Amino acid sequence: MSADSLPRKVRLGRGGALLVGAVVYALLVYGPLEFLWTPFLLGLAYLGAAAAGGRAGGLWATALVLLGWGLGVLAATKVDIGVSTADGYLIGIGAAALVGGLLARSGFSVDLIGIGATAFIAGVFHTFAGDPVQALVEPWPYVVLLGAVGALNLALALAPRSSPARSSTRTGPRLGSTATEASPPT
């Protein structure tokens, strides 16, 4: 899917949801909630953006992994269920992958690579949070990132759309076609 292939309405909804999510996140983590609520709150912001895009609007993988990780963090730290923090992370992200697979089978646009990439990036952020990069244990980078992704979606929604160039010199096969259908005439 190209950057401008999503309908304007989807981009506007996603962008608005992420900008609202950035503001709500900032109000909550600079207010009554601790920083450890971050993955869960970011997951809720992405869930709102995914819902604004509908089944085919994307962002479901990111929302699910962040929510799963966030629930794992909260289960391990706020609820006395007897699991370690690492166990909570694994259970939460594993559950997110399972839910993502079920949603994909039900027609939602949940990308397996998106699930893996989100879990990988979360792991990298978690690894470098604290001593190496103190900013990663502060709320402000996440406010900025959520706001930037929201603003990018709004910018893409409002940008002029170009019509795809037509070319009769296509040489490779198209997805779903046979080699004889895609071959240039001789």
Rg measurement, Å? 20 Å
Low-pLDDT runs of 5+ residues are: 172-184
Q: Compute the number of structural domains.
A: 1
Order of helices and strands: HHHHHHH
General form: globular
Report the sheet with the most strands, covering strand number, pairing sense and barrel closure. none
Q: Tell me how many strands there are.
A: 0
The helix tally amounts to 7
How helix-rich are the residues, as a percent range?
Answer: 55-70%
Indicate the proportion of strand residues: under 5%
Structural class: mainly alpha
Termini, distance in Å? 31 Å
Mean pLDDT: 87
Task: Provide keyphrases for this structure.
mainly alpha, 63% helix, globular, 186 residues
What does this structure look like?
The protein has 186 residues and is mostly helical. The protein has one domain. 63% of the residues lie in helices and 0% in strands. The longest helix is centred in the N-terminal third of the chain and has 22 residues. The C terminus is likely disordered.
List the helices and strands and how they pair.
Elements: H1 8-29, H2 38-53, H3 60-77, H4 85-105, H5 112-128, H6 140-158, H7 179-182
Helix pairs in contact: 1-2, 1-6, 2-3, 3-4, 3-5
Summarize the structure.
Helix content is 63%, strand content 0%. The protein is mainly α.
